[in-house]
Amino acid sequence: MDLKLHDKLELKRTHPCGSRKWEVLRVGMDIKLRCLGCGHEIMASRRKVEKAIRRVINEEGEQE
Description:
64 residues, five-stranded antiparallel β-sheet
């Protein structure tokens, strides 16, 4: 999966704050994400994040 910085992701599971949308802050072997609901940041393995993605919205706002 081709993720870029500042892409917006909608994940399958809801974060405790109620949001499903995350922003990509770092891409590599691990991916750093920021919750767009509360601002909480996490770092997870690429494999785990890719399995959890429902859809990707790139920085221009287009759905991929």
